[in-house]
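2024-03-11 09:14:02 INFO worker-7 job=invfold-0412 stage=load source=structure_tokens
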């Protein structure tokens, strides 16, 4: 990776402000996650005891258990209490955990995610700085880190890795450094199922660089093989081990990840508002509906204000989420869509209603993040008067 772009980065006072915000956000998430264990009675939580380390265990819940399991024992068709396949969790993060597992798998998983989150915000700041200026870059990072689901960057999840790799693809593609774009394309395609789709905006940037003249396509285009190579490598592995090249897709279906019309999630959420009666459930559906509408509005603004490749990436991700039959987890899945935060940072906050509107929204977001951390760490404590299982 080229060094010159990063050599003086830490001397930049604007970037140092970003580092301070980054550190504060990490402290905020870690304090609530670890502290929750001492304030919520253990007998009403569903927290899994993945490790005896009371510092690390809060960060090893839900999907984290799948990554740790794969790192320690590999893929299986009998994973978890429901005895289902775990083939759709992609292998790069578990492989990294296994590689550095000599320090302990949970600690390795925690450190990898958090180190990746640092590189992710560094690359995002550089990308936006070069595109829209330092002030917008700084605000982009702040809006990203204060989003309600940004705590996933601290958990043993792939959000931080995926953001790091996807931003790096855009950064190096914009610089015309196709080798590095291809390397990160390979890595992102081994991180998540949708990673291969970053080939579309990256490919568009390349075609624009040659003025869309197919006669000018050169050897640099070979680097784009990295994108499909990552996914194909995983599919080939599953074929060798399981004899089923489509195992990951069948595995995803067992977790309810089926396709539906884009409006199905809205219908499901509206119906749920008439049947759910507990505050957290109702609030969850309302927030999902409001934010989904906001995502669509910001997509339009992205089309108006940003380069087309950012809008393409935004559109692809949003469509994938909307056709997944419900809006559950939409705020987590949209967390890595950094053009959304670029647009927020580009809004003219000289207008008082924009400035104070964003302040109010993000105060609410920080409070919502705090509540979300508690619910995540306890795997939704057994408080039936606050919520019932989502269906």
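2024-03-11 09:14:09 INFO worker-7 stage=emit residues=391
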């Amino acid at each position: 990776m080229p060094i010159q772009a990063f050599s003086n980065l830490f001397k930049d006072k604007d970037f140092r402000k970003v580092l301070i915000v980054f550190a504060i956000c990490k402290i905020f998430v870690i304090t609530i996650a670890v502290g929750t264990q001492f304030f919520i009675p253990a007998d009403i939580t569903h927290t899994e005891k993945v490790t005896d380390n009371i510092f690390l265990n809060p960060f090893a819940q839900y999907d984290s258990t799948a990554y740790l399991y794969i790192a320690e024992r590999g893929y299986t068709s009998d994973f978890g209490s429901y005895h289902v396949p775990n083939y759709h969790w992609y292998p790069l993060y578990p492989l990294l955990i296994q590689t550095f597992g000599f320090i302990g798998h949970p600690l390795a998983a925690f450190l990898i995610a958090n180190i990746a989150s640092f590189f992710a915000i560094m690359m995002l700041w550089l990308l936006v700085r070069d595109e829209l200026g330092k002030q917008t870059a700084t605000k982009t990072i702040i809006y990203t880190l204060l989003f309600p689901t940004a705590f996933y960057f601290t958990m043993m999840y792939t959000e931080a890795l995926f953001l790091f790799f996807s931003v790096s693809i855009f950064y190096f593609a914009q610089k015309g450094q196709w080798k590095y774009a291809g390397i990160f394309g390979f890595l992102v395609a081994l991180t998540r199922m949708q990673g291969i789709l970053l080939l579309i905006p990256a490919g568009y940037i390349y075609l624009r660089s040659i003025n869309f003249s197919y006669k000018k396509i050169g050897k640099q285009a070979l680097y784009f093989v990295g994108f499909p190579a990552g996914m194909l490598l995983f599919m080939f592995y599953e074929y060798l081990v399981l004899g089923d090249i489509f195992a990951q897709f069948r595995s995803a279906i067992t977790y309810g990840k089926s396709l539906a019309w884009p409006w199905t999630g809205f219908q499901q959420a509206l119906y749920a508002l008439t049947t759910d009666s507990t505050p957290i459930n109702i609030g969850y559906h309302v927030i999902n509906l409001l934010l989904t509408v906001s995502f669509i509005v910001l997509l339009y603004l992205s089309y108006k204000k940003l380069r087309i490749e950012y809008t393409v990436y935004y559109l692809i991700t949003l469509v994938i989420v909307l056709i997944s039959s419900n809006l559950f987890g939409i705020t987590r899945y949209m967390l890595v869509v950094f053009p959304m935060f670029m647009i927020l940072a580009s809004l003219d906050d000289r207008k008082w209603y924009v400035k104070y509107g964003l302040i109010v929204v993000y105060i609410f977001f920080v409070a919502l993040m705090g509540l979300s951390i508690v619910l995540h760490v306890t795997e939704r404590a057994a408080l039936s008067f606050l919520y019932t299982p989502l269906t």
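2024-03-11 09:14:09 INFO worker-7 stage=report msg="The mean pLDDT is 93."
2024-03-11 09:14:10 INFO worker-7 job finished
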